[in-house]
Fold:
Amino acid sequence: MNDLKNPNTQTELILRLMPAWRILFFLIALAGIPVLWAQDFAAALKVVFSALLGVAALASLVSVPYLLHRDHKGRMISLVLDYLGLLFCLVGVLQVGQVFTGIDSLGAVFQRGLPFLGIVLVGYLFGAASELYPNDPQRQKNLRNTGKVVLILGFIAFLLAVNVFTGLFNFLTRLLQPTGLSMIFGATLFGLSLWAMWREASAQTFNAKTSHEQMISGWLFLSPNLLGFLIFFAGPLLLSFYFSFTNSDAFNPPQWIGVDNYARILNITIKPLNDFAQPARDVLDILVYDEVGRMKIGDGGILFGAQDKFFWLALRNTLTFALFAVPLSVIPALFLSNLLNMKLPGMKFFRAVYFMPSIAAIVGISLVWQWLYNATIGYINYFITVGVEFLNSGFGLALIDPKIQWTSNSGTALLSIIIMAAWQTMGFNTVLFLAGLQNIPGELYEAATVDGAGSWAKFWNITLPMLAPTTFFVVTTTTIQAMQVFEQIFILMNPPEGPGNSTISLVLYLYRSGFQNFQQGYASAIAWVLFIVIFGLTLLQFQRQRKSSIYEG
Amino acid sequence: MNIFKSYHLGTLIRNLAVYATLTFFALVMLFPFLYMLTTSFKTPADTFRYPPRMLPRDPASIEVAGFDRPLPLYYVTHNGQEREFALAQSNLRTGTFAPADNLQASVERMLADVRPTGGEGSQQTIIVNGKEEKLYDITLDGQVVPMVLISQTTVGEFIDPKNPSVKVYQNVRLSTPVEDITWHPENYSAVVELQGLDRALSNTALVTILVVLGQLATSVIGGYAFARLKFPGRDSIFVIYLGTIMIPFVMLIVPLYQLMVLIGWTNRLAALIIPWIFTAYGTFLMRQFFITVPKEIEEAAVLDGASRLQILTKIFIPASVPALATQATFTFLYAWNSFLWPLVIINVGNSENHVLTLALNVLRGRASDTPNLILAGAAIAIIPPLIVFILGQRFFVESVTSSGVKG
Structure:
């Protein structure tokens, strides 16, 4: 007991050094700010990074009195700062050693390594196979050991095949330069300081409690995830909001232009037409507006004009797509899931088959459908022809084979996308519904049967209301996905916007603005409008779902 | 007893109807895949054939004695029987001849076999329907009859492969060729060579493996922190995570692109990997699974002096294999199939760093006259995820809704 209360002198010495280190850290962080401003990148990022450095410097300074008083807060701040510093230096080492860009050269040799990765898998399977013999420990042990040996040998062979040692050598030689060495030095320093504060002895000196220990492990375990989330998700999300108020073009410093992007998107006009065929230039200020569409009312009508007609066409197409594709994939899915839920033999097979389209690459699938939709040799028109001939000869009808030009006719282009998308998402929705159905207690149906309810009555009065949460989930996620339709259109249509802009979608327009015209500020504004539309639709469905569930009691 | 019987009959009919419906939809679901697979083994000419056929077929040919090349086989009618004959010679010119006074009594002769009446250079003519027509000597029943040429066409000489002296003459274009079901697996090596799909495949595999491993690592430790470690701020961070799950990726595409420009990762595979190994969704999934692991096991391990990391690797990870498999499968599919982000970040010209979806996008334009190759490429992209799905579906399909996800 006596030993614990009097930490040894070594610990004491280290802990005395800590305040000095924290002050040094404070000075380095402060010095970093002007260095940062001398660099050449976006001012917004400079502000963010300077703020981060400033906070780190301040925290380091604040921790000094705590450390001197042996207050646990001092240890916490110290740990956090050193940990972040260590991570920064390690990432710096990887960057200077060109590990991230080196992934490309790994791609070139990875092919050679793939068979050996297969061997690793075989080794793993050996180990897993040991579970098959729970009553034979000797055999289990043998299998496990064989598996381990195969796995390790396979992995070593893989490393050799992809020249990992050459890569390692190159990595080390690249580090032998001022930036690399200072990064290594920094990493060592942060690492040592981290270790010093982390030690059991230091924890005792600072009277660490179990809750402190949990807090440290909690943040530590969460940190890789949280940092990645901040850097690659939350940060970019805020940045996107900022960009939407600028004229950013990805390469020059963005300039603040206020709400101009949004104003351009939302600038629309509606004009009455005396004569439906009246040219647009008679009623529109054609220097500002383009015609989006017109609606017939009596002899005249109204004309919709917009400053950015592509956005409104894209919005119209996307909403139309969602309006048809969602029911077309949800309603059959509901129907199929009820059939699958009859628990007849072979249902797992059907379930797996229905699921297949939703796991295949949309790009590949779209290529297949492109040929299915081919107007002259495609199977879809062939089936229609066969069907028409059958009806004509069998029932004496005189139907005309439509010979639909699926993807090259502005009337059917979007329809072809809708059909394909419904085909692709139906199976996933079926499985979601099936899972929902299996959660409905069987007693409800039994009670209904006793009351003499038929299948339809059971479906309307039990299945549908009980399935409401699943339906909400399915409809919401399918709608959110449908509102982002892009890949199908991009591959299936040539050009992607389709005949007469009939398949330009919001994401396609965003891609075109942001990455073909490089109006990235404008593209960001489109993204936020898209988000608001999606959010609005979700909210709408949420309220409907809440209302109906109140109604159902 | 009667009621019992009708109940059985009703059930039988109902079940048959159910199976019929399910089979119909199964065929609808499978048809594009079957079409893709069989077409990928066809020759280009076969792909453009109408009406379309499912299985790949090639014109059949046969070696016949006396010919140095194999001869194409056709269906011909010989002595009232349909037989397979080899086409020995095509473009033989034949004429239909008839006597000038009886044009209905026509016969057919090879042009090479007939001689002009009166010899070359002094051919006799006759007026038929006010037009002057040349006369030819035609041998008919052993007699030479002068006849006029009514019309001419070309035919092929078809011979019996077993007995080459048996010959049949008929129009080649109107004859049906004999076709064998022939698969052309060389389409796959051709498309791999044409578009560098081997490099794209290994890039895709590399990216996918790294993203899956990275996501599993970050979400396992993050999920553990959310599920089992109490620390201030945990719950508010969790709520933020939850709130961002529904935010569509396109919201981030512009700033992420600029971030990649800033750190020099455009055109780099790293851009397809590093930003994707952090996942709010996967963390949520693991957290949901970890909170179901009984606390007692963990507490016992703590008493034994196990560290957090040991508890995680020795207790939580083995206990959550189904959840890990589900997440791995989801991530695999997502990484393997992603298109928009690679399209933005990797240049079309930089085929070294293409992933499969990008390579297919380029292939679509380059090979538009060879659908067999395009669909072979599509199959290369589609089949590996299907295999992963079949291996992982036990976990995957089962847990789709217990968590509720969209891929």
In short: Chain A has 23 helices and three strands. The beta strands of chain A are 268-273, 290-297, 300-306.
